[in-house]
């Protein structure tokens, strides 16, 4: 009453949303590969249409599918979406309103599709868009209409591809500033001057102008002119510089005083190299980079004059291929280029040596990176020239990824580099470490990761603050490094954390991917100043103590922070917890405190047992149980039952009555009851009738019980062989357990359906009401309420009547009620 039933069809959209998406089109596929951060990876799923995805998604990756069309309803309801990638599909058509509901979209990737034109309607509602990628689509023209007019927040833009032939004036209309601009225009044939010049400030510009540099240098110059500013880094890709003529467009960069220049995928001859040096003479160039260069010729630099490159600060050269390397001459003629830079990187260039004279020329060098080359111990001696004053200001040396084997040779070579602070010798072939080494006293950072070290020795410099020994075969670290602040030991074979006493100033410890089983609070407290720990991806044994400690650390309750995330800590054993994150498991109190639990259970059981015993004693339950057991034993005795039936059938009952009485009342029984009933007496009637009826035969336990038999059997046998049962009641009787047995046996015998019992006769020796009888004597209380009883008179004159009534009751003539 008062509530309305909600139709099922109104809940269906909500259920669909919770299950992964919503759509009125049942033919659309669904994608439910979303993580806890609402990032949905639907890439490489062979989708031909945009799949159904939860409307709560923040990131949606649809790359590398076979989607050909984006309709106006495919993305409806995704107002929260921040990132959308359709990279690597076959999208040829997009509805003008396809992106209208994506108000929060910040990144859109439509690269490597089949879009033949760009429609400004696609982007008019994307006011929050920051990054847009339109590379490698077959559109031929950009700027015929202001495609990006509404994208006022756009900061990263990439467009163009092999099909782009024309850039018009409206290409960047509406774009106010950019952090990066990427234009692939290798086949550009028409360019309206000023088309790319309206954006300011303009960050890094990447241009692919292979064709214009070869065939239309005026067009290439116009493009460079529009994007060149002193503060804007310029990246030129896919160039083929052969002679002086092919380098002329670079004069636009020189005129604009560009300070940061990079060439990628460059093919250049020695003649063109000299031409570039001449063009850039006097330009305040601070950074010059070549990534992926093929050198042709013989390295003839004679035509290079003494150019002014005093402002150059860094040379970065990577992936060099020299076609005729054995014909190439020394770089000594370019010494005017070598004496100024403070940072030089020659990476992955198959370089096996730098002549000592060339090294000596680099007098301002502070940073030298020769990683991933072919240096050996022998050629390193030549490269790190021993001339006095060579590399005197060098602070950082990176020779990782070479073919070095001797740490003693290396330490001897760098010992004289008195300003060296950082040394990276990782990914070499160091399999052993000498007992002692000499290092510069300034060395603070040492990286020997990725080698084959099995042990470490005091060869390590004591001045180190950061030491990286990752990805070796170490089983322990027992070298004192008092100044060390950070130690990286990931990827080794450590069974436990290193002793903290060796590293009194250590603040950060990394021991991921080892063979650690566990660690505890005492292990971490051995490091006096440890603050950060990364110990995930180990084979943890999830004991109760370890789980409790680690969960406490994850919550931040410990002094040391786990900085690699709780998802890195996975149980390896026991088996039922294998693969479970340590931070999410629950171990019960019973499992974690078995000894205490058993002790508590025993204690509780003892207390309960004591309480039960006290309760049973107070309720006389044990008495009831003993009586019931005795009665059942007697009842199920077939021998007695057959004896009873035979006796009744032959009328051979031995006694007229079985007398049940307390031993304390035996005097009354023997003085009054037995003589009166068993011995003939003369009465008034005797004078008339001359003879008294026959005496009665009584069964008394003191006289008639068979010795050597169980007392219960004697009681049952006496009752079975007696016509009636007489109970002599008194306070002594109710205090006697055996009297209680006899009373209850009589009651059971009377109501046993297989026998014919006579009612019991009650004699009260003293006044005794039902309320005076304890409640545990429930049978006696019941008999006193339902059975006629005789009360022993204290007056002598009333006793005759008592005996007459008792005899009459025993003979079955009637009953008297006092």
From TrEMBL:
Disulfide cross-links: 34-40, 356-385, 437-459
PROSITE patterns assigned to the protein according to its UniProt record, in alphabetical order? LRR (PS51450), TIR (PS50104)
**Keywords assigned by UniProt, alphabetized:** Disulfide bond, Glycoprotein, Immunity, Inflammatory response, Innate immunity, Leucine-rich repeat, Membrane, Receptor, Repeat, Signal, Transmembrane, Transmembrane helix
Its placement in the membrane is given as: Single-pass type I membrane protein
Its GO biological process annotations read: inflammatory response; innate immune response; toll-like receptor signaling pathway
TIR domain location: 653-810
Q: Which GO terms describe its cellular component?
A: plasma membrane; receptor complex
Q: What does this protein do?
A: Cooperates with LY96 to mediate the innate immune response to bacterial lipoproteins and other microbial cell wall components. Cooperates with TLR1 or TLR6 to mediate the innate immune response to bacterial lipoproteins or lipopeptides. Acts via MYD88 and TRAF6, leading to NF-kappa-B activation, cytokine secretion and the inflammatory response.
By sequence similarity, the record places it as follows: Belongs to the Toll-like receptor family.
Q: What is this protein called?
A: Toll-like receptor 2
Organism source for this protein? Paralichthys olivaceus
